[in-house]
Amino acid sequence: MWSTDSHKGEDSGLGGECALIASRSYSVLSLHANVALAFETEHRWANSLGLIVEGPGSWRVRPGLALIREDAEGEDAEVSMLVGAVWNRVYGLAFDLACRRGLEPSNEPSEWRIGSTWSR
Length: 120
Description:
The chain is mainly β and 120 residues long.
């Protein structure tokens, strides 16, 4: 990741993230466990843990729910929930839309995410 703007007194710079994802699919749902380590553009280390539950892969639109714990150097850990859906299209193309919200009252406001995945 590369940040080119500097807002709220933050430095811009180079950062990166390495993640390990383990998945298991059953006929009624899919489970994904995520572990990630990042060096943020603010030059500090962060890590995250996540558990994702998705509806059946055979459905055209699959609902999804994720619990995520993020911990950055010098900050309190944050726990959030993401609720969304994945729309399967043709030729390995899928689109997703989700809303993420912190579970603590002091956490930042909601965040909307949209994405696409192409797989063969």
